Amino acid sequence: WLCGRVSACLAAVRELVSEWAPRPVVVGTALVEDGMLLAQQRRYPAHHAGSWELPGGRVEPGEGEPEAVVRECREELATEVVPLGRVGTDIPLSAGSGMSLRVWRARLAAGARPPVPVEHRALRWIELSQLVGLEWLEADRLLLDSLRRIMVAESGK
Ligand code: 9L3
Ligand code: MG
Q1: I need a labelling partner for 147 at 20 to 30 A (CA). Which of 1, 9, 21, 84 fits?
Q2: Residue 122 has what DSSP assignment?
Q3: Cα 132 from Cα 91, distance rounded (Å)
Q4: Per-residue model confidence (pLDDT) at position 131
Q5: Collapsing DSSP states into helix, strand and coil, what is residue 1?
Q6: Which residue has a Cα nearest atom 16 of ligand 1?
Q7: pLDDT for the residue numbered 84
Q8: pLDDT at 12
Q9: Could you say which residues of the chain have pLDDT below 70?
Q10: Radius of gyration of the chain from its Cα atoms, rounded to whole angstroms
Q11: Residue 36, SS3?
Q12: How many CB atoms lie within 10 A of CB 135?
């Protein structure tokens, strides 16, 4: 009887700890130049193909978030960016994945090459008026208000 109680108790503790554990982070990059935001169109997986997203991907073990932003932009856009700070709030990604999307504002590094779509179908510099009409991934769409604010701030410079 005691063994049963102890193992039930351990199971409950294990469940609590896994809920408290930080969710693995996927970084997104809000690259804004001249008041325009860079969006990229996914090619895979099938249920994401054709939708638009901010460039980025999973933070690797031992990697900082700004480092992950720089690495993902090298891999996906073949360019150099400078992370500037967080944008908006964490967005939980699709149920079951246990990951969160965390977006960083960035600019192109001095002398950086223009971004190109290395593994995506297309890239597009989006103006404010085009922001809402784009077919964004669900998670990215939740950040449109925050993105609009930084585009407005940047276009005033
Ligand atoms: N995701 C959503 N919005 C984004 C990014 C970069 C990623 N702006 C989601 C799509 C995938 C997961 O995060 O389910 C991992 O991203 P990736 O490694 O496939 O880019
Ligand atoms: Mg990616």
Answers
A1: 21
A2: E
A3: 18
A4: 98
A5: coil
A6: 57
A7: 98
A8: 85
A9: 1, 18-19, 21
A10: 19
A11: strand
A12: 10
Tens-place pLDDT, residues 46-67 = 999 999 999 999 999 999 999 9
Answer for the pair 56, 26: CB distance below 8 angstroms, yes or no: yes
Query: Residue of the nearest CA to atom 20 in ligand 1?
Result: 57
Residues in the chain: 157
DSSP 3-state percent helix, strand, coil across the chain (nearest 5): 30, 30, 40
Residue that is written with structure tokens 């990215």 in the block = 140
Q: What ipTM describes this predicted complex? A: 0.98
Of the bound ligands, which one is closest to the alpha carbon of residue 48? 1
Q: Contact at 8 Å (CB) between 52 and 39?
A: yes
Six-digit token string for 27: 């970084």
Ligand 1: which of 101, 141, 144 to mutate, judged by most atoms within 8 Å of the beta carbon?
101
Cα 115 to Cα 81: distance, rounded to the nearest angstrom: 10
